[in-house]
Amino acid sequence: MGRLNSTRFITSMYSGSLNSSIAKTKGFTLIELVVVIIILGILAVVALPKFINVSQDAHVSTVKGTGGAFKSGVNLARAVWATRVGSGPADDLPVFGTATEGELDFNDNGWPAQHWGTADSDGDSPKLDNTDDCISVWETIFEGDEPSISAASSSDETDYKANYLYSNNCRYDYSVNTNLSISYNSLDGSVTIDSDPNN
Known about the structure:
By secondary structure, the protein is of the alpha+beta class. The chain has one domain. The chain has 3 helices and 7 strands, in the order ααββαβββββ. The strands form 2 sheets. A 5-stranded mixed β-sheet has the order 3-4-5-6-7, covered by helices on one side. The chain has a two-stranded antiparallel sheet with strand order 1-2. Strand 1 (90-94) and strand 2 (103-106) form a beta hairpin. The longest helix has 55 residues, at 30-84. The chain starts with a helix and ends in a 5-residue tail after the last strand.
């Protein structure tokens, strides 16, 4: 019996020391916490630029989408001109619906070239020659469902700012990042999308 008591004593002694050592290791040491904070800091430094680029990529995609829609509208307008006129200039051709808002002027080459605020061309080829012409082409091509636009000199807050560059050429700068733009040349109907946000 003495032997059984000594075995219980030894067993209880070891189990007591095991319980007390387990109780002492229920948490993180200061070094472990510092290591975790350093790792989280490194991840934040690496991941943050990725999230910034997501925003920039969204703006680039917006301009690319708008430019693609604008080019499609220009091509659709040209198809209407080819069907209804076929050759030479045209004034106030109803392209999108029957309202005057859907009318476009076309140059000799059959591309939209409004001559806003001036008399009809009387056989002369219309051409883009001011900012109002550029805005008019934009608004007519998008048929009233366009991203907002105003002249570059205007203080209005709009999605795009219209610039008349030189004869028959317009540029529409994206207001959020003016390095992003859509250019239109009415001589050949080309639409160029500048999608480099840094240049």
